[in-house]
Amino acid sequence: MAKVGFFEKKKISREIEDIILLIVQDVANNYKDNAKVNLKKLSKTVENYRRKDKLEDKDFGRYMNIIKEYEDKLSNWKRTY
What we know:
By secondary structure, the chain is mainly α. It has three helices and no strands. The longest helix is centred in the first third of the chain and has 23 residues, at 6-28. The model has no long low-confidence stretch (mean pLDDT 91).
Protein backbone atom coordinates (compact mmCIF):
# COMPACT_ATOMS: atom_id res chain seq x y z
CA MET A 1 0.00 0.00 0.00
CA ALA A 2 1.22 3.47 -0.82
CA LYS A 3 2.14 5.73 2.06
CA VAL A 4 -1.10 7.42 3.09
CA GLY A 5 -0.94 10.07 5.77
CA PHE A 6 -3.27 10.10 8.74
CA PHE A 7 -5.27 13.09 7.54
CA GLU A 8 -5.59 11.77 3.99
CA LYS A 9 -6.78 8.43 5.35
CA LYS A 10 -9.38 10.22 7.50
CA LYS A 11 -10.51 12.27 4.47
CA ILE A 12 -10.91 9.14 2.33
CA SER A 13 -12.76 7.33 5.10
CA ARG A 14 -15.06 10.31 5.67
CA GLU A 15 -15.86 10.59 1.95
CA ILE A 16 -16.77 6.92 1.73
CA GLU A 17 -18.74 6.95 4.99
CA ASP A 18 -20.72 9.99 3.77
CA ILE A 19 -21.76 8.10 0.63
CA ILE A 20 -22.77 5.09 2.75
CA LEU A 21 -24.87 7.39 4.93
CA LEU A 22 -26.66 8.68 1.83
CA ILE A 23 -27.44 5.11 0.79
CA VAL A 24 -28.75 4.26 4.26
CA GLN A 25 -31.00 7.33 4.19
CA ASP A 26 -32.23 6.55 0.67
CA VAL A 27 -33.10 2.99 1.67
CA ALA A 28 -34.85 4.16 4.83
CA ASN A 29 -36.95 6.57 2.78
CA ASN A 30 -37.60 4.07 -0.06
CA TYR A 31 -35.72 6.20 -2.61
CA LYS A 32 -34.62 3.25 -4.73
CA ASP A 33 -33.33 5.27 -7.68
CA ASN A 34 -31.25 7.56 -5.46
CA ALA A 35 -29.95 4.57 -3.52
CA LYS A 36 -28.82 2.91 -6.77
CA VAL A 37 -27.08 6.08 -7.95
CA ASN A 38 -25.29 6.47 -4.62
CA LEU A 39 -24.39 2.78 -4.55
CA LYS A 40 -22.77 3.14 -7.96
CA LYS A 41 -20.94 6.24 -6.70
CA LEU A 42 -19.75 4.29 -3.65
CA SER A 43 -18.51 1.42 -5.78
CA LYS A 44 -16.61 3.74 -8.12
CA THR A 45 -15.09 5.69 -5.22
CA VAL A 46 -13.92 2.55 -3.41
CA GLU A 47 -12.51 1.05 -6.61
CA ASN A 48 -10.78 4.33 -7.47
CA TYR A 49 -9.04 4.54 -4.08
CA ARG A 50 -8.15 0.86 -4.30
CA ARG A 51 -6.62 1.38 -7.75
CA LYS A 52 -4.59 4.28 -6.36
CA ASP A 53 -3.51 1.95 -3.53
CA LYS A 54 -4.95 4.24 -0.86
CA LEU A 55 -7.18 1.68 0.88
CA GLU A 56 -5.94 -1.04 3.17
CA ASP A 57 -7.12 -4.57 2.48
CA LYS A 58 -9.31 -4.70 5.60
CA ASP A 59 -11.03 -1.40 4.73
CA PHE A 60 -11.49 -2.45 1.12
CA GLY A 61 -13.02 -5.76 2.22
CA ARG A 62 -15.37 -4.02 4.64
CA TYR A 63 -16.56 -1.55 2.01
CA MET A 64 -17.03 -4.33 -0.56
CA ASN A 65 -19.18 -6.24 1.95
CA ILE A 66 -21.33 -3.13 2.41
CA ILE A 67 -21.64 -2.71 -1.36
CA LYS A 68 -22.62 -6.37 -1.77
CA GLU A 69 -25.17 -6.09 1.04
CA TYR A 70 -26.90 -3.11 -0.54
CA GLU A 71 -26.73 -4.58 -4.05
CA ASP A 72 -28.59 -7.62 -2.73
CA LYS A 73 -31.09 -5.47 -0.85
CA LEU A 74 -31.79 -3.20 -3.83
CA SER A 75 -32.11 -6.07 -6.29
CA ASN A 76 -35.17 -7.30 -4.35
CA TRP A 77 -36.98 -3.96 -4.34
CA LYS A 78 -39.98 -3.53 -6.56
CA ARG A 79 -41.50 -0.28 -7.76
CA THR A 80 -44.67 0.62 -5.92
CA TYR A 81 -46.01 3.17 -8.38
